[in-house]
Structures are given as C-alpha cells and as structure tokens.
Specification:
The structure holds 2 protein chains of 2 kinds. By secondary structure, chain A is α/β, with parallel strands linked by helices. Chain A is 36% helix and 27% strand. Chain B is an alpha+beta fold.
Chain lengths: 222, 411
C-alpha cells in the first residue's frame, strides 16, 4: 500500500538548512493501522505531509498503491490526493464560512465522480454516522471542537480513500472526546479495510496499532 | 431544507463572497477606490468624446479662422466669421489656390452683392445676396438649421435666420423663381441674419437683372472674381504664419483675423486629450498595482484556507479561479458603482457647465446612448480586468506552493 524510500525533507530557515526527515524507509501493508510516535520536532508531521502529497520531499520516493505520487503532475497529484488519501490535521481544519455538510461534500465535489445530489446524500450519511445528523446545516463555529473533528473525519472519508492519514487528530481534545474520535477512526479501519496511519503521543493508543513506527531526529528508530 | 445541495462552483463563489464580507471595511475601501477610478474612466471617456464631437461641429459652425478680402474693404468682424462684407473691390477667385500655402488648411470663396428692390422683404429693403461654392464651403452650410431632404441645386436659396418662408416654397428674386432650400440658425451677424445665400451658379444667373437695377455692373458678379475668402488654418499653423504667407502671396489683399482664441483652443484641446488619455492609462496602471498589493496581502492572510483547499483536492486552477472570482467580484462591483457615480457627475456637469455653454450659444453634444452604454460596459469590464490582473500573480504564486507549507505558514 505505502512504500517510502530514502525519504528526506530539508527546510531552509533564516538560521540555515534544517533536516526534518533524514532518509526514512517505510512500508505499510494495505488495511493496516500504523502508529507513528516520537517527540515533538522529530519529523512526524513532515513525514505525514510528504506521504499525504502535501509537501514535496527533498529526496526519495513515495509510492501509494503502486503510484509514485511525487512524479505526478500538479493536477494529477491533486486528483490522486482527492480520491485516494484522506487527511485529518492536528487542528480544526474546516472552512468556517461553509456549513458542515458543505465542508464534507467539498472534496467529493472537487473530484466530480458523482452527481452533487448523491455526494450530498453520502456526506449526510457520513455526518450521521459521526453523530452529527442534527448539524448538517450548522457552521463550524456553532459546534464543539470534538464535533468539528468528527466532521473532519467524515470529510476525510467522503471519497472512500485507500489511505487515511491522521496527524495528532486529538491533540487538543479532552480525554473522553479523544477516545470517541479514535474509536471512529479505528472503526473505519476495521469495517472498510482503509489503511490508517496515525501520528500520536498517546502510547496506549499506539499499542493498539498493528505497526508502530518510532521516529527520532528525522529517522526511524529500530 | 437540511443539507441543501450546492455545486463546487457555488461553494467557491460562496467562499469568495463570504471572504469579501468578512473584511467589510477593507472590501468597501477597495470597492470605493475602484469605483472612483472607474468613474473617472467612464466620465472622462464620455466627456472627451462629447467635447470632441461638440468641437468638431461647433468649430465648423463657428466658421473660419480668418478672412482674406481686398485691401480697403470694410470688414465687420464677428466671432462667427460667417461671410465677408459686401464691397465693390474684388479678388481673383483662384488667387489662394494658386498660392498653395502650407499654413492654409481649407478656404472658401464668397461673392456678395447688396441689392434693393429685389422682391424680398419690403420694397426698399437692402438684401445681401451671398454666393458660395457648395463643394468648398465650410462656413454656411454647417449653420443650416432646417433644410429640405436633398442636396443644394441651382436655383435653390438658403435664408438667414430672420427670414421666414416655408421650406421648399417658391421665392421670387427680381421676378425669378427660386426654391427655399433651407434656413440658417442664428449667427449673431445682424446683416446676414437677413441675408439670402445661394451657389455661385445661382447668383451669376441673376447678374443680368442685378445689372439692370444698378448704375454700374457689380465687379464681383464677373466670372473668376470673388469678394473674399474664408480661411481655416492648417493643423499646427499659427494665424501669424498664415497672415504673412497670404500677404506675401496675394497682392492687394488684407487679412482679417477673427477671434484666434478658438483656433488656439482647438489645437490645445487635441494635445490636452492626449494628456488626459495618458493620465487615464497611468491611473489604470496604478489601480492595478494597488489591487495587486492588496490581494498579495489577502492571499498571504488566507494561506491556510488555500492550503486546506489544495489538501482536500482543489486543483491549482480552482484555487486561482476562486481568488480571481473574489477580486473580479470586488472590482466589478466597484466598476458598476463607478458608472453610477460617473452618471451623477455628468448630470452635475450638464446642469452647470453645459447649461452655461449653451446659454452662450456654444453647442454641447453628448455622445449617443449606445456609445455611452459601451463606455459604461467598458469601464465595468476594465475594473474587472484590473481585479483579475491584480490578483493573478499572488494567486498563481500561492497555488504553486505545497499545501502543507500554506497550511503551516498560517500557524
């Protein structure tokens, strides 16, 4: 499902070049739940952004379902990201001026794979599954942080992705909400066979993963 | 209805609109500045075209820049310079054509005979019969306020504004029937308000009867002789240059200049219009730059949103399109308001300066409605283009960046 080879990411800062990811090799089998753990600044988020097609690697290759994603053109990568990868950020990432249902439907509307009515029906069902059936027309500011995060998960699932990447999806939530959100994500992984990669500081959550990747100083710790 | 269905274009348009609404003060200032620019462009274009049109008609109606008459002839100078004064002295009809002077633009010869007992008006009325060459004339026919619907023919006469006879009716001059071809507007030249104008051919046809009324035949009715010439300066030539050129070329002639202010204005305005056009172009460029700077800031401020849109699958074209839509909406609304502002400004102009000009007898002719609508549409399109051009570069730059960089840089 996922294969990373000699993956590097350098950032140029005012104080010189910083290496965030220093030659990582990583493989994740289809349908697996993998947890990436490590201290803040270890390069976890940079690794996730490269895998998710959001940040171009300085070196190395990333293959998702056999596609070397960074060899794709801009538009092809956008289409691939849209159709095959769902992303849950570590912060509330809904567009504040759109309703929850619009936020969820938007990636599918970009993809144009089905008629808008069908996509909205699917968005409505996903929000219902996340316990947000009564908030379809609500704006993000009208619901709680936990509910916003559920809506983000619904958005990540709208195009039936093969891979869901969650970068500390519960970092700013209380413990109970964190458990509920993670239950949702793990449920998706179990029920649909979607590959799930989660960056987390929560070791008890990581222990539930089928694969744990420990990163320190931009490299995988054996 | 819960979960009302919306298309991706609608959602992106909605995002653009809501972003404009989120920063009301900034959006209003942007719209206001574009509105002012558009109002200037719309009003400027409409007024320039109107003034140009009025001048081209008005100057033609006002007549020549100077007249050339025999030395010793009495002259009565008016702003209109409609005709030369009746005189016994004459010039050769081909004198100016032979001289071929560079400072002389157009010229038109006239023959003038003052007669009595012509049958026009009361018995002892003296009437000026004024002959002209319809092909070369530029000082009489432009004053036609009314005319029959055909070209001037031999036997036709044109009446001064104070003479009243139905168009197309018969008028007897020395017992010979003539057709009233038209009537002039008011010229302000008293004797000629009551004059009767006709082609050389028509006037020369009256030579025999006029001769019979007078002790000596009027020299001006002889073929190849004229009372004088009305002269228009060549573009760029000064009255002084023309005067010297004519006096050195035509012996026994004198040059009478009218109000040179008008020819000065005519030449000056052409240069002024070029200057106004250049200023409008500069204003266009500076507004585009201002919009670009503003939208650079807006794009920077909204990196997070743009990054998020890219992250969930928006293509570069869609990201750029959303920003361009937002800019075009703002500047297009500005353009529309600019046109409204321009219309109000022109109303004010009409009630003040135009009213005053018309009171002075200077015609002001507005451009026709279709052209005004075209200018209004052009101003709105121009404003929208400024918005699109202004945002294109910052949006293009943002769209090239990685989604993660955009999201992360917002903090």
């Amino acid at each position: 499902m996922l294969s990373c080879r000699r993956l590097r990411k350098n950032y140029v800062t005012e104080r010189g070049a910083v290496t965030a990811v220093a030659g990582i090799d990583l493989d994740v089998e289809p349908g697996r739940f993998a947890a990436i753990i490590g201290r803040s600044g270890s390069g976890k988020s940079s690794l996730m952004a490269m895998i998710g097609g959001l940040s171009r690697p300085s070196d190395g290759t990333i293959t998702v379902e056999g596609t070397d994603i960074w060899r794709l053109s801009d538009n092809a990568l956008a289409a691939f990201r849209n159709g095959r990868i769902g992303f849950v950020f570590q912060f509330a990432s809904l567009l504040p001026t759109l309703r929850l249902i619009d936020n969820v439907a938007l990636p599918a509307l970009f993809g144009k794979r089905q008629a808008a009515a069908a996509l909205y029906a699917k968005a409505s069902a996903l929000l219902g599954r996340m316990g947000l059936r009564d908030y379809l027309d609500a704006y993000p500011s009208e619901v709680s942080a936990g509910e916003q995060r559920r809506a983000v998960i619904a958005r990540a699932l709208i195009n039936d992705p093969a891979l869901v990447l969650a970068d500390e999806p519960t970092g700013d939530l209380d413990e109970q909400t964190e458990i509920e959100i993670m239950d949702e994500l793990l449920g998706v992984n179990r029920e649909t066979g979607t590959t799930l990669i989660v960056v987390t500081h929560n070791l008890s959550l990581a222990e539930q993963a089928q694969q744990i990747v420990h990163i320190a100083n931009g490299a995988v710790v054996p | 209805m819960a979960g009302e269905i919306r298309g991706v274009r609608w959602l992106l348009l909605s995002l653009a609109l809501q972003n404009l609404g989120r920063r009301k003060a900034r959006s209003l200032l942007l719209i206001a500045s574009v509105a002012i620019g558009s109002a200037v462009v719309f009003t400027g274009a409409t007024l320039m075209q109107s003034i140009d049109r009025s001048l081209s008609v008005g100057f033609t109606r006002l007549g020549a820049d100077m007249m050339v008459v025999p030395e010793g002839a009495l002259t009565n100078i008016t702003a209109a310079l409609l005709v030369v004064e009746p005189t016994e002295l004459v010039l050769d009809a081909d004198a100016l054509a032979k001289a071929n002077l560079a400072s002389v633009g157009r010229f038109a010869a006239q023959k003038i005979v003052r007669v009595e007992h012509s049958g026009i008006g009361s018995h002892h009325d003296s009437v000026d019969l004024i002959g002209f060459d319809p092909a070369r004339d530029f000082t009489i026919q432009p004053w036609l306020a009314q005319r029959v619907n055909r070209g001037l023919q031999p036997g036709d006469v044109i009446l001064g504004a104070e003479r009243d006879a139905p168009l197309g009716s018969q008028l007897l001059i020395f017992g010979k029937p003539h057709t009233v071809f038209g009537r002039l507007g008011r010229t302000g030249v008293g004797t000629h308000e009551r004059g009767v104008f006709m082609s050389f051919v028509t006037l020369e046809a009256l030579a025999g009867v006029i001769h019979g009324q007078m002790s000596a035949p009027p020299a001006v009715l002889a073929p190849g002789k004229v009372s004088g010439f009305l002269v228009e300066l060549a573009p760029g030539a000064t009255a002084l240059q023309a005067r010297f050129a004519i006096l050195s070329a035509l012996k026994g002639a004198k040059v009478v200049a009218g109000d040179t202010t008008m020819s000065g204005i005519r030449q000056g305005l052409a240069a002024l219009f070029d200057g106004i056009l250049a200023l409008m172009a500069l204003m266009f460029a500076s507004t585009a730059l201002m919009v670009s700077v503003l939208f650079s800031a807006i794009v920077t401020e909204r990196r997070g949103e743009l990054g998020l849109l890219k992250a969930i699958g928006a293509r570069r074209g869609q990201v750029i399109g959303m920003m361009v839509t937002e800019a075009v909406l703002a500047t297009g609304i500005g353009g529309l308001l600019g046109v409204v502002l321009g219309v109000l400004m022109m109303r004010l102009f009409e009630r003040s300066l135009v009213f005053y000009l018309e009171k002075l007898g200077v015609p002001f002719i507005w451009v026709d409605t279709p052209r005004t609508i075209a200018f209004a549409g052009g101003a709105i399109v121009l404003a929208s283009v400024i918005g699109a051009l202004g945002v294109l570069y910052p949006a293009w730059r943002a769209s090239r960046r990685d989604a993660y960089d955009l999201v992360r840089s917002e903090g």
